[in-house]
């Protein structure tokens, strides 16, 4: 049941890479992500509205991208980690048919406060950088 | 726009700095397990801290929490936005930009900080102001202004649980290049096409046919690469070519990290390779970890189709 492990600062080194994660951008993910984040802006569920803005199809909303970014970080750290901040620069839209690959690397460790900073990039295979930024996690103090 | 007009416009927009977009407003629904589960399913987040009551009871928190990235979700207006948003200071500001030609809109940055986690039963209260507006900037999208909203989140006890800064660029749209955007289907990008001129077209055409040729002076037999019209040894312009065996040794190598160019596969190793025939050749090294690539490494090239449009010699560890 509780065989979930959470990293501590002692387990982590600067430069550690997070396991890459490929996300298939489907219409389902875009539309359902928008609804799950209560974002009813038509460009995220109505193709005609998205096309009117110059894009080929509905595109992922920011709240879904934020969710994927924190998931990517806590998939790696384990569930006792506390997300302290999420800082995103937004790039090219994620549109159905693309694949977004997320990669990340530990850039800072503060043992006194038991926090780690992770630089994360989400790049799609068609237009490149979708999001780039950092996540700060507080890891459990060592027992 | 004259200098006076610009000044008058900027006076109007900068008057929005500090204005309230919404007063502290409690979310219509308390933090709840149903919305959390739906979010976790779609995001694919299996973190038991969000959805597993049994695990959470034994965890240091003692209960499930809402995903931090849902902080802004609780206060969302809902389905009503499909027919437009209620007017507020932000929409007034946006309208003012639009009326002056700054009709383009692009969310550029969002930063959330979290001070306290929330759990089912908590009520998230959100307030928002327009925090700052930049000077007029020249951007890749066109001239414009960045404005930033600051949202502050508290819980039902008045404890601060987080903040969000959201930066938006309002810009004067430039003439759109014939964007991939208007295409009906997404084209998987291919590598940058080889430049084929009078002096090197023959080389690329042989490559398309699966061969790597090396130019040879007809007068003195000296080999040369890349292709060029004149022999550097004897200045003869008479030449033919031989086919390379693509056996070689790495003289120098590097790994391309940034910027990643669509159409290329990463990790991307570029190496200068000394071919058995004696000429040097620049190509990608594949089929091994970047950390395995070293000077002096023996490699063997194969002309391969690397994408829908491109044939290229790639080198593998020999
Ligand atoms: Zn010669």
Please give the structural blueprint.
The complex is a heterodimer of chains A (143) and B (318).
Chain A: E1 17-24, H1 27-36, H2 47-52, H3 62-77, E2 82-90, E3 99-110, E4 115-124, E5 128-138
Antiparallel strand pairs in A: 1-3, 2-5, 3-4, 4-5
Chain B: H1 3-14, E1 20-26, H2 33-43, H3 48-51, H4 53-58, H5 89-99, E2 104-114, E3 125-133, E4 137-139, E5 142-154, E6 160-171, H6 201-208, E7 213-217, E8 223-224, E9 239-243, E10 247-256, E11 268-275, E12 280-285, E13 298-307, E14 310-317
Parallel strand pairs in B: 12-14
Antiparallel strand pairs in B: 1-3, 2-6, 3-5, 4-5, 5-6, 7-8, 7-9, 10-11, 10-13, 11-12, 13-14
The structure holds zinc ion (ZN).
Would you write up a description of this structure?
- The complex is a heterodimer of chains A (143) and B (318).
- Chain A is of the alpha+beta class and 143 residues long.
- Chain A has a domain of 93 residues: Hotdog Thioesterase (Thiol Ester Dehydrase, Chain A, Roll).
- Chain A is 22% helix and 35% strand.
- Chain A contains three helices and five strands; from the N terminus they run βαααββββ.
- A five-stranded antiparallel β-sheet of chain A has the order 1-3-4-5-2, covered by helices on one side.
- In chain A, a hairpin with a 3-residue loop joins β4 and β5.
- The longest helix of chain A has 16 residues.
- Chain A is elongated, with a radius of gyration of 17 Å.
- In chain B, a hairpin with a 2-residue loop joins β4 and β5.
- With 318 residues, chain B is of the alpha+beta class.
- In chain B, strands 1, 2, 3, 4, 5 and 6 form a six-stranded antiparallel β-sheet that branches.
- Chain B is 16% helix and 34% strand.
- Chain B has three domains: 161 residues, Thiol Ester Dehydrase, Chain A (Roll); 51 residues, no CATH class; 73 residues, Beta Barrel (OB fold (Dihydrolipoamide Acetyltransferase, E2P)).
- About 2% of the residues of chain B have low confidence.
- Chain B is built from six helices and 14 strands.
- Classes of the chains: A alpha+beta (143), B alpha+beta (318).
- Chains A and B meet through α1, α3 and β2 of A and α2, α4 and β2 of B.
- The structure holds zinc ion.
């Amino acid at each position: 049941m509780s065989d979930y492990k959470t990293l501590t600062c002692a387990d982590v080194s600067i430069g550690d890479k997070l396991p890459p994660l490929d996300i298939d951008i489907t219409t389902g993910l875009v539309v359902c992500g928008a609804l799950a984040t209560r974002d009813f802006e038509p460009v995220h569920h109505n193709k005609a509205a998205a096309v009117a803005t110059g894009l080929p199809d509905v595109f992922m909303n920011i709240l879904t991208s934020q969710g994927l970014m924190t998931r990517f970080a806590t998939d790696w750290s384990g569930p006792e980690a506390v997300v302290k901040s999420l800082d995103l620069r937004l790039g090219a839209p994620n549109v159905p048919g693309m694949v977004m690959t997320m990669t990340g690397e530990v850039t800072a460790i503060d043992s006194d406060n038991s926090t780690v900073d992770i630089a994360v990039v989400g790049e799609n295979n068609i237009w490149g950088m979708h999001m780039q930024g950092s996540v700060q996690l507080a890891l459990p103090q060592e027992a | 726009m004259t200098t006076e007009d610009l000044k008058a416009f900027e006076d109007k927009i900068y008057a929005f700095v500090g204005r309230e977009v919404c007063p502290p407003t409690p979310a219509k629904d308390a933090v709840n397990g149903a919305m959390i589960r739906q979010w976790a399913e779609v995001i694919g987040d299996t973190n038991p801290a969000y959805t597993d009551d049994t695990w959470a009871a034994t965890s240091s928190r003692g209960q499930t929490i809402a995903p931090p990235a849902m902080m802004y979700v609780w206060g969302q207006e809902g389905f009503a936005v499909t027919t437009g948003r209620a007017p507020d200071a932000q929409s007034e500001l946006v309208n003012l930009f639009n009326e002056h030609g700054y009709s383009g809109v692009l969310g550029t940055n969002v930063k959330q900080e979290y001070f306290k986690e929330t759990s089912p039963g908590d009520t998230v209260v959100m307030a928002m102001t327009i925090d700052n507006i930049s000077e007029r900037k020249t951007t890749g999208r066109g001239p414009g202004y960045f404005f930033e909203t600051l949202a502050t989140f508290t819980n039902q006890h008045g404890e601060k649980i987080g903040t969000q800064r959201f930066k938006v660029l309002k810009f004067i749209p430039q003439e759109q290049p014939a964007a991939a955007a208007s295409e009906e289907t997404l084209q998987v990008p291919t590598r940058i096409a080889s430049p084929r001129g009078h002096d090197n077209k023959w080389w690329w055409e042989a490559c398309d046919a699966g061969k790597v040729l090396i130019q040879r002076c007809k007068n003195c037999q000296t080999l040369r690469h890349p292709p060029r019209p004149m022999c550097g040894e004897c200045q003869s312009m008479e030449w033919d070519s031989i086919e390379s065996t693509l056996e070689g040794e790495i003289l120098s190598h590097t790994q391309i990290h940034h910027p990643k160019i669509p159409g290329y596969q990463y990790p991307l190793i570029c190496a200068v390779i000394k071919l058995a025939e004696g000429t040097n050749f620049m190509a990608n090294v594949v089929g091994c970890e970047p950390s395995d690539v070293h000077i002096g490494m023996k490699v063997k090239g194969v002309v391969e189709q690397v994408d829908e449009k491109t044939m290229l010699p790639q080198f593998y560890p020999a």
